[in-house]
Design goal:
Layout lengths: L6 E6 L3 E6 L5 E6 L2 E5 L6 E3 L4 E3 L5 E6 L4 E6 L1 H4 L10 E8 L2
C-alpha cells in the first residue's frame, strides 16, 4: 500500500484496486488499459480508456479497478497539488495494486 502525494502515476495489475477516501475533486486519468471507477452511493458505471479522465464528483469512498488486464493511471489531487489542503479536504488515499480476491 502507498499513500499518494500531489500527483501519482500508478501501474495497476488486472483486478488491482486503488482506494480513494473522500476524494471529491480528484482527477483519475487512464493512460493505458481500462479502468472502472465506482463511487459510494452512486449507481453509475464509469469506464475509462486511454486518454479519458474523470473528476470524482462526490465525497465518500471511490474505487478504481483495472479491468481486462493491467492499466496505468494518474491520480491528481487538486488540494495537494495547489498546496492548499483544507481541513477535511482531499483524499485519504491508499493504493492496493494486488489482484482482488
Amino acid at each position: 500500500m502507498v499513500c499518494l502525494e500531489a500527483d501519482a502515476r500508478i501501474h495497476v495489475q488486472r483486478g488491482g484496486l486503488i482506494r480513494l477516501g473522500d476524494a471529491e475533486g480528484t482527477a483519475v486519468r487512464c493512460l493505458s488499459g481500462a479502468v472502472w471507477v465506482t463511487l459510494e452511493r452512486d449507481d453509475r458505471d464509469i469506464l475509462l480508456e486511454p486518454g479519458q479522465e474523470f473528476v470524482i464528483d462526490r465525497a465518500g469512498l471511490s474505487l478504481v479497478c483495472a479491468i481486462a488486464g493491467p492499466a496505468d493511471v494518474t491520480i491528481r489531487d487538486p488540494h495537494r497539488a495547489a498546496g492548499t489542503q483544507a481541513s477535511g479536504a482531499g483524499p485519504d488515499s491508499v493504493i492496493d495494486t494486488r489482484r482482488a480476491a
